[in-house]
Amino acid sequence: MKNHHKTLLNQPMMLIRSGFTGLGKSMMWLGSAQFSGRIIRLISSIVLARLLMPEIFGQAAIVLTLFELICTATRRITSAALIRMDDEQCTRHLRSANWVNWAVCLLACLIMLLLSYPIAVYYQDTSLIFPIAVMATSFLLLPMGMQYATLNLRNNKMRIVGRANLWQTLIDAALTAILALAGFEIWAIILPKVVVIFVWIAIHRYHNPLPQMQSEGSIQYAQVLTLLHFGIPVSLSDLTNTLRQNIDYLLIGYFMGVEALGVYFFAYNISLGISLGLIQSFGTAFYSHLCQRNAVEDDLSAKYLSSIAAIMAITVPVILLQSALSNWYVPLVYGDKWLSTDAIDVFLFLCLSGLVRPLGEAASQLLLANGLSQTNLKMNILLTMSLAMAIGIACQFSLITVAQTVMVSYLISSPLICIYSYLKVFKNNQKLTSVGESL
Question: In terms of pTM, does the model score above 0.85?
Answer without folding.
Answer: no
